[in-house]
Amino acid sequence: MLKRYFLNKESVEAGCDEAGRGCLAGPVYAAAVILPPNFKNKWIDDSKKLSDKDRYELRPEIEEKALSWAVGVVSQQEIDEINILNASFLAMHRALDQLKITPEILLIDGNRFNRYKEIEHRCIIGGDAKFMSIAAASILAKTYRDDYMKNISLQFPHYGWDSNMGYPTTAHRDAIRAFGVTEHHRLSYQLLPSQLELEF
Questions:
Q1: Which end of the chain is flanked by fewer CB atoms within 10 Å, N or C?
Q2: In the sheet that 68-74 helps form, which strands lie side by side, from edge to edge?
Q3: Which residues, including other chains, have CB under 8 Å from residue 9's CB and lie 6 or more apart?
Q4: Would the pTM of this model clear 0.85, i.e. be above it?
Q5: Of the candidates 162, 134, 167, the residue with the CA atom closest to the CA atom of residue 149
């Protein structure tokens, strides 16, 4: 249950959140969502608290009812070049670039953010469990990234990306040991406990 729906109903708020920071493979995704001030949905919550089925059922509701929404992506190659923190900020910026409405304030999940244009922003730790727009953004970012990982899993079935989504599970790391790395892996990450075990 969200603690608050909006920071200020009189302002045009865009909630931003990302998915995939801790993964060993695949891009990082972020979403930005502007909801109407009268929007209500008792089921929307931090995507991590929802089942896969619930997230996918809520996605069309968010997309239909939002005043504007967008998803930004930063590739694994870009992550290796600029690091995951900056990549997460860039993914949010790319999502914000696509909004059809200019927000007056940005609600960012987390404790850090790179300023976007001249728009005021608030960093909120655990924001996806507090504010409706951030929770909605977390659902979009998560489901769109999951779609991508399930798709590339068809080409690389050994890594289990259709279930682990690129996170460092035991099965994923066992597959890296057995089959090596792919073009989708983040080479700047410690893919195995010892990098000496990898062959690039």
A1: N
A2: 68-74, 28-34, 13-19, 105-109, 120-124
A3: 37
A4: yes
A5: 162
Indicate the Cα dihedral angle 76, 93, 141, 180, nearest 10°. Answer: 0
Whether 166 is in a domain gets the answer yes
Burial status of residue 44 (CB atoms within 10 A of its CB: 0-12, 13-18, 19 or more): buried
In the predicted structure, residue 178 carries a pLDDT above the cut 80: yes
Angle 132-153/52-65 helices, nearest 10 degrees? Answer: 120
Q: How far apart are CA 79 and CA 4, in angstroms?
A: 33
**Model confidence pLDDT, tens digit, residues 49-88:** 999 999 999 999 999 999 999 999 999 999 999 999 999 9
Instruction: Single out the residue in 131, 150, 169 at which a domain terminates.
Output: 150
CATH number of the domain encompassing residue 68: 3.30.420.10
Same domain, 136 and 161: no
Spatial neighbors of 57 by CB under 8 A, at least 6 apart, are: none
Q: Is residue 38 part of a domain?
A: yes
Question: Does 3 reside within a domain?
Answer: no
Q: 155: closest CA among 192, 180, 186, 183?
A: 183
Q: Identify whether residues 43 and 95 lie together within a single domain.
A: yes
So what's the pLDDT on residue 156? 97
- Token pair of 81, please? 């070049």
